[in-house]
Amino acid sequence: MLPTLVIRSSSIHAAGCYTTRALRKGTRVCEYEGPRMTKEVADARYADRFVTYLFGYGEEDMVIDGFGTPMFFNHSCSPNCESEEVDGHIYISTLRAIKPGEELTYEYNLFDSDDATQDCDCGSPNCRKTMFSPLELKRRARLERAKTRAAKRAAAK
Question: Is domain 5-33+68-156 given the CATH code 2.170.270.10 in the classification?
Answer without folding.
Answer: yes
